Amino acid sequence: MSLENVSREEIVAWLHKWHAGADTLTTDAHHMFFTKDATLTYANNHPVVGLNNIIEFFNAVFPLLSSMSHQTRSLAVSKNTLFLRDYIIYIVKGDPEKKEIKVPALGVFEMVENAGERIGRVDLSGKGEGGEAAVVKGLEIYLDASEVFGRIQGVKEGRL
To answer: Which InterPro entries match (predicted)?
Structure first.
């Protein structure tokens, strides 16, 4: 069953879980979202292929942040593709001003064929089905995070 066969409320509920998992700044829930062979393309970086490599990618970034949160602006679904417009609000770890950096982003989620049957299986309590709930086989995130990474560099160099 494709995403077109499930209610908007079910998709929004899944999206809330996606954001809740990401906003913890850990990769603890990634196995519940990304398939083992998923591909992630983040901004202008080369694609990252495979769940373990995606986890490694985020494990390198998350420790540089003290918080991250998402504000959904809009979403649209076409068969098994989810188009999500968000604001992502970052605070860099060690930033003496704790400046909130609000970055507009577009995420394009390519989902598995039976995504509609699986999106309700994500359980962030730790009792979830893991890979059985994973529906994201590809994610492209379009954003300009240069201000965030510039601030990270400023903290590292002690310029802030």
So the answer is: NTF2-like_dom_sf (IPR032710)
The model's pTM = 0.91
The residue count of the chain comes to 160
| Sign for the pseudo-dihedral over CA of 146, 147, 148, 149 | positive
Domain ranges of the chain: 3-157
Contact at 8 Å (CB) between 73 and 80?
Answer: no
Paired sense of beta strands 101-111 and 136-143, if any: antiparallel
Per-residue pLDDT of the chain (160 residues; tens, 9 = 90+): 788 889 999 999 999 999 999 999 999 999 889 999 999 999 999 999 999 999 999 999 999 999 999 999 999 999 999 999 999 999 999 999 999 999 999 999 999 999 988 888 887 765 545 567 799 999 999 999 999 999 999 999 998 8
Options 3.40.50.1820, 3.40.630.10, 3.10.50.40, 3.10.450.50; CATH for 3-157 is: 3.10.450.50
User: Which pair of tokens denotes residue 65?
Assistant: 């942040």
